[in-house]
Each structure stands twice: as structure tokens, then as C-alpha cells.
């Protein structure tokens, strides 16, 4: 009898889970339940879709023919409402689906805070292509956009909207940009680079209220500053989509807790990607979702595979600005090597421990991010290195 592998969510974690499961078991029955109407697409490139640099077709990883060829049943526009653990059955708004192994890869949704005026028109979150289309339509008829949140996605979306001809304001509640992904020098260089591209940045800006009669027209900050705007984009992080699964006995912290096999505490149920929490971490990062999806799919299909927690890396995707960080960039007991060329907007800092790069910041050096990432992932040893020139020559 064919094994039934059921996957909730056709995002990048769910897609990779299905690929791994099919590689392990050529005969199993694989079904993916997806709430949206589209095949998997590269969500990280949505800012480029907004700016017009790429199309939905370019973003779509695999067409319907791929699913047919690999005998993967993709069921779209289907909302999961719960799980009957005893019957090993997933409940949806379009019927029930039985499983032998279940992989929850339901992703995450944008965080929408309880701020006065949050329900005014022309206030958007961006997670899907549909969200991006709404923003593009607003940008065509509006002059000023304000992005709440100066994280990587907020900065990239702000730049994309600037490319459409809108004035762009970015409001960041911290005293500097990307405080968890950069140090003070890199943040300062980034701020200067964004200003040079015509983007207004408001630091120490905590939003108190969105003001307007029917549509948003101003953003009021808690320190009294008021910013005129025609539309607002909320870019304030995401939260795991755990609602349909929070009353079935799963161990849940910020997301669904999993072990190194991506197993949950309930037999034959796995979780991966933005909906999963491993070692108390819920990164919500694309490469990690891919890796976890592969491990979950392999184990669900019967091949024991262990997930190796990777050092998270971030890379800002704005043309003309190179900012890459990886690993622990605030290491207190590491040897550090750095170079800062303020006049040319270049900055490098490496943290080494026992000959390994455990953290790095790269700003303004286009050729280095991939080399550094590979050195970290391959655990390349740097023995006897005394200065940054020697390290760079050895990469």
C-alpha cells in the first residue's frame, strides 16, 4: 500500500519537502494543500516584482507540468481548519485528507500591530503577489509612501517603490538601521547610501497613530513628529501560522517545536520553515526554510536525515548597496580583523575563533559575500592569519 504524505503549505519549505519525499520514495502518494491560487514563487524577490525588474513568471519556481511529472498533487485554494490526530486526518474547507506522514509548512503572516488608525484605507502589508499588486496600483496614483519598519524587507520595498517615482519615508523605531544584522559603522554607511538614493529615514521613530478621514494621510510618531503620506506599508516582521494547529497537542513556542529530524512531539507529524521552531529559534529566513523542508520531506518518506543548524546570513538586495552579514557579528571572545574606508563607503569586519570565521560584516565589496559565505559554510580554517589582507587572500 502506497504511503500517504500530506504537506500543508506550498511555500519554499513545502516545495522542498515534496521534492525530498519523492527522491526517497518513488511510489508514495504526495499531496500539497495550499491556501493560495498560485504555484510556489520566490517570495524574497517580491521587491523586484514591485519595481518591475522581474515578472511573476520569472518568480515561479515550477509550473504545473513539474508537479504532474513528479506525481505531486497540488491542491490550491484550500484552507486547512484543523487536524484530527487520532484519525490522522487534516480538515479543510473542501473536505478531509488522510495521511501516514504529515508535514506542516504553513509559513507565516505579516505582523499587524494594534495601532490607532491601523484599519484606515491605503495601509498595506506585503507577503504575497496579491499584496504587491495592491501596492503597485497605489504607487501609480500616489506621490508619497511611508514604510513602517527599517528591516531588510522594509528597506528593499522602500527602494522598489522609489523606483516607481514615489517619495519614500522609512520609519525605524531603533536608533540605527538593522541593529541585529549590522554594527554601528555598517548602519551608518547604510543610512548614507539610502539617503543618496533619495530615501528619507526617520530613526527612533515609534508609530503612535495613523491619521486620516477614510484613507491614511499622516503618520504620527510618539515623539511628536508628523509625516505626511499617501499610503503606508507595514514591514514589522511576521508571525508563524499556528492557529489551525494550536489545540491538537503540539508543543508550541513562537512556532511549532521540532527536533533535529524536524519531528514534532506528535508521531508522524513534522514541521518546517517559518512555522517551525528549532532550538528555540524561529528564523523565518528563506535558506533555512529550504533546508528544513528537505529534511522534513526525507524523514517523512522514511530516510533518516538530520538537520544541521546553519549560521543565518542576510544580504540586502538593493542595487548599488552591498551589505552582507553572517553568523555572530557581536562575538565578545573572538579575534576581530577589520578595515574601514569611510571615503569610499567600504567596511569589512571578521570574527575568528579557533581559526574559523564565526561572523562577518561586508559593506561595499560586491565580490566578497559569496566567498565569505562559502568559507563559513565549509568551515574553512584560517591558521596563522595576522591581518585582514592575509585573510582576504586566503578566502
Please describe the topology of this protein.
Elements: E1 4-8, H1 12-24, E2 29-33, H2 46-51, H3 56-59, H4 64-69, E3 72-75, E4 80-84, E5 89-92, E6 95-98, E7 101-104, E8 108-110, E9 123-125, H5 129-141, E10 144-148, H6 152-163, E11 167-171, H7 184-196, E12 199-202, E13 207-211, E14 218-221, E15 226-228, E16 231-234, E17 238-240, E18 256-258, E19 269-271, E20 276-278, H8 286-300, E21 313-315, E22 323-327, E23 335-341, E24 346-353, E25 356-363, H9 369-377, H10 388-394
Parallel strand pairs: 1-2, 1-7, 2-3, 7-19, 9-16, 10-11, 10-16, 11-12, 18-20
Antiparallel strand pairs: 4-5, 5-6, 8-17, 13-14, 14-15, 21-22, 22-25, 23-24, 24-25
Count of DSSP H/I helices: 10
Structural class: alpha/beta
CATH C-level of the largest domain:
Alpha Beta
Mean pLDDT: 96
Taking Cα atoms only, what radius of gyration do you get, to the nearest Å?
Answer: 22 Å
Nutshell version of this structure?
This protein is α/β, with parallel strands linked by helices and 395 residues long. Helices cover 25% and strands 28% of the residues.
